Amino acid sequence: MSRESAPSPRGARTHRSAGGVRWRSWARHHRVMALDSARRLLRRPLGSLLTMLAIAIALVLPAGLWLTLDSARLLDAELEESATLTAYLATGIGEGEAGRIEEALAAQAGVAATRLITAAEGMAEFQQALGLRDALARLEGNPLPASVVVRPGNPDPEAVRRLAEALEAVPGVDEVRLDLAWLERLRHLAELGQRVTLALGVLFGLGVLLVVGNTIRLAVENRRQEIEVVTLIGATHAFVRRPFLYSGAWFGLGGGLLAWGLLTLGSDWLSAPVSALAASYGASFHLPRLGAEGSTILLACSTLLGWLGAWIAVNRHLAEIRPR
Predict the structure, then answer these.
(1) Which residues 6+ apart lie within 8 Å of 211 measured at CB?
(2) At the top level of CATH, which class does the domain 84-179 belong to?
(3) pLDDT (tens digit, 9 = 90+) per residue, 218-236?
(4) Which has fewest Cβ within 10 Å: 11, 100, 118, 142?
(5) Backbone torsions φ then ψ of 104, nearest 5 degrees
(6) Domain segments of the chain: what residues?
(7) Phi, psi (rounded to 5 degrees) for 116
(8) Element of type H or E holding 110
């Protein structure tokens, strides 16, 4: 390589230095604009708080429904795990033969676990459940057959139906009973809830955009002369947009924090009566909380919605402002 074509180390250093200066200047301007927009919001605490509260109210309902659906999915998973089939054996089968039939059922594909209930055990449970021990004791024989409780490996309703048909074909099995109507209803309700939550989330997200956009529109009008002056001296639209975008992000972040606080207080307020109601039915249920992941998603979505609302409002009004 000739001396003339070799790059100059001093020129390369100068280029890198200029790039570093531009980057530091850009980062410093962003920091200044972020702090300045925060100070402007603090100068009007009541108006800023009301705007953030409106954003929080718009976020609370879809976030609350999301938490409810999340707890419903957990409950659905628990119910699916408890879904069982009952295979009633033919009458007159002894305990030894019933044990062999149970082994045959356990060997079927798709069976996770089995439990044998002998005729004597079934009668004892029946007497205890109905409280008719003395009346049933007068019977000459035990009319109840032995049964095998089968827990399927796949709780999908269609897979459980196929498993029931396979179990009925096992010699010694008289009838297989399953009731999956409640599980299908629960799944339909969960799907409906997901669609309602999605629709409400979109609608209230648009509401957040309108709230932030209207607030930023007023801020742009209040600083119209300042915008015209900086535009005359060569400021780009990106430069003019920057403080308003940070204001929208601050509004969104504040609204998300208020929504998080409202959800936490509401959960604490309702947890005691909900737990008492569940205990009256012999169940244990606790209201879900956002947690670290849910809180991060809520704050990120609220901040992004605030930024997007400000971006839409500023772009629309910057196109209408012309330097005089």
Answers:
(1) 51, 54, 55, 58, 309
(2) alpha beta
(3) 888 887 887 777 777 777 7
(4) 11
(5) -65, -40
(6) 33-78+184-318, 84-179
(7) -85, 130
(8) none
